[in-house]
Write a structure and sequence with these properties.
Largest sheet: none
Order of helices and strands: HH
Number of strands: 0
Organism: Flavobacterium limi
Number of helices: 2
Protein name: Gas vesicle protein
Keywords: Membrane, Transmembrane, Transmembrane helix
Strand content: under 5%
Helix content: over 70%
Shape: rod-shaped
Radius of gyration: 36 Å
């Protein structure tokens, strides 16, 4: 998780603990206190769920970006290799033509 996600989770956890302590120390009927605790737990669970979903979205975006960067880099490498292969083939074709020419001269001298 990123630092922002950790910070958000820590703030939410602190708020939940603070709210729980405040409710427990407040002079109120037990049934009211239990209802408030239940409500705060529900809010905290929703906040944590939202935080998790936001973090998941950030991770999905980063993964998509990394995948796109990889695809682009891979395509560039293939393009460069393709150009280099063409250069090598051209070089080898020239060398082959030179060898054929030298061989033809050799054959001509041998026949004479």
């Amino acid at each position: 998780m990123s630092n922002n996600s950790n910070t958000i989770a820590a703030i939410l956890a602190g708020a939940a603990v603070g709210a729980a302590i405040g409710i427990l120390l407040a002079p109120d009927k037990g049934s009211n206190t239990r209802a408030k605790i239940k409500e705060n737990l529900g809010d905290t669970a929703n906040n944590l769920k939202d935080s998790f979903e936001a973090s998941s979205e950030v991770l999905r975006e980063k993964f998509a970006s990394a995948t796109e960067n990889f695809d682009t880099t891979f395509d560039e490498i293939l393009s460069n290799v393709s150009h280099k292969a063409d250069d090598v083939i051209t070089f080898l074709e020239k060398k082959l033509a030179d060898l054929k020419s030298q061989n033809a001269k050799y054959q001509t001298k041998k026949e004479a």
